[in-house]
């Protein structure tokens, strides 16, 4: 693709400005932007933007239009502050906020005290779970046997 000498000169001007600018976010000089916008009718906005390495929107839209679009995005698509308030009021009316009931406090620990049988009785079984829970069984009943089998099933208890 052949690039017009005028466009090459414009690209060289932009390179020189970038090389000599004082700050990273220094705005493009107005005279350079004016030259770039004047080249658009002859070469097209896309080619000019590619050649001088500037965003297409910077060439085709002025700074005021870009600022308006940014403000519109911040206001949720509204055209004015009054319209933004109206949109927010409608949204609030559609979905009223419901107060959540406070969650009950979670205990930091639980303790269950069951009186032990007489001292002379020895436990039938003692089981300790991987999390450190110790269980002593003093009486053999169908319920205690099912509890023991559930705790020892699938290798949960060593």
The gross shape turns out to be elongated
Helix content: 40-55%
Structural class: mainly alpha
Estimated share of beta-strand residues: 5-15%
Total number of β-strand segments?
2
Distance between termini?
A: 76 Å
Neighbour order of strands in the largest sheet: 1-2
Query: What is the N-to-C succession of helices and strands?
Result: HHHHHHEEH
Number of helices: 7
As residue ranges, the low-confidence spans are none
Describe the protein.
With 158 residues, the protein is mostly helical. Among the domains are: 60 residues, no CATH class; 29 residues, no CATH class. 51% of the residues lie in helices and 5% in strands. The chain has a two-stranded antiparallel ribbon with strand order 1-2. Strand 1 and strand 2 form a beta hairpin. Helix 1 runs antiparallel to helix 2 and helix 2 crosses helix 3. It is elongated and about 105 Å long. The two termini are 76 Å apart.
Task: Present the secondary structure layout.
Layout lengths: L4 H16 L9 H14 L1 H8 L3 H5 L2 H12 L6 H14 L30 E4 L5 E4 L4 H11 L6
Antiparallel strand pairs: 1-2
Helix pairs in contact: 1-2, 2-3
Would you summarize the structure shown here?
This protein has helices spanning 5-20, 30-43, 45-52, 56-60, 63-74, 81-94, 142-152, and strands at residues 125-128, 134-137. By secondary structure, the chain is mainly alpha-helical.
